[in-house]
Amino acid sequence: MSNFPCAARRVPRGMRPCLSLAVLLLAGAAVAGAKAVPDVTLKDLRGQRHKLSALRGNIVVLSFWATWCGPCQEELPRLSQLSAQYSGSPVRFIAVSIDAAKDSAKIEPLLAKEGVHLEVWTGADTDTMARVGLGNIVPSTLVLDERGEVITQITGEAREEDIRSGVDWLLGGRTGAPPALKRTRF
User: Fold this and answer.
1) Residue 15, phi then psi, degrees to nearest 5
2) Are 47 and 22 contained in the same domain?
3) Which residues are catalytic?
4) pTM of this prediction?
5) Mean pLDDT for the chain?
6) Do 80 and 154 fall within a single domain?
7) 53 and 97, same domain (yes or no)
């Protein structure tokens, strides 16, 4: 944006608000113009297959976690509460377990113990996380827009404001400054 002040000097005074609006729209478009995450197919706890692309048209909070991860156990109840607060809106919260198949029996007891009520998908691993643009750290969370494009990526334990900033920006018609694209919480 350091080049814009020079361009603004050549714009007639009455057109400067339009240029400012254009700059804001371009900033929003840069976030919204991100590439869609690759389509992945995973299973829910009943074994039914789900494709990530089937969620298009919704805002999606996609959180990768594991039963052995302490920060994940702190984050999941928070995501569950947020999910309840956004019920009735076009926002879907999906908790994607990267637990090995041999450990899948630990998932439901942990969710019950923590009072978590989220849609859970299984069968992911760190390769899946890499495919969707994350590293190998859990928890890691993506906020996706209606087209499946990344709006916010949180590495580490997501805070409420990390999720709300992306979701509320999308629900609000992308007005105002876009949320930070990447956040790291350690």
Assistant:
1) -95, -10
2) no
3) 69, 72
4) 0.82
5) 86
6) yes
7) yes
In the block, residue with structure tokens 């377990």: 97
Same domain, yes or no: 19 and 80: no
Question: Is the domain of 23 the same as that of 95?
Answer: no
Count of structural domains within the chain: 2
Asked if 66 and 149 sit in the same domain, the reply is: yes
Tens-place pLDDT, residues 134-181 = 999 999 999 999 999 999 999 999 999 999 999 999 999 999 999 999
Sole residue written with tokens 């969370």: 141
Q: Are residues 10 and 81 in the same domain?
A: no
The percent of the chain in helix, strand and coil, each rounded to the nearest 5, is: 40, 25, 35
Q: Do 14 and 97 belong together in one domain?
A: no
pLDDT single digits (tens) 63-96: 999 999 999 999 999 999 999 999 999 999 999 9
Write down the pLDDT at residue 186: 85
Domain membership of residue 58 as a residue range: 41-185
Q: Where are the beta strands (DSSP E) in the chain?
A: 41-44, 49-51, 59-65, 91-97, 119-122, 140-144, 150-156, 182-185
Neighbours of 112 (CB within 10 A): 10
Q: Is 179 helix (H, G, I), strand (E, B) or coil?
A: coil
Query: What is the DSSP annotation of 112-148?
Result: HHHT---EEEE---HHHHHHTT--S-SSEEEEE-TTS
Angstrom CA distances, 77 to 23, 118, 127, stand at 38, 9, 25
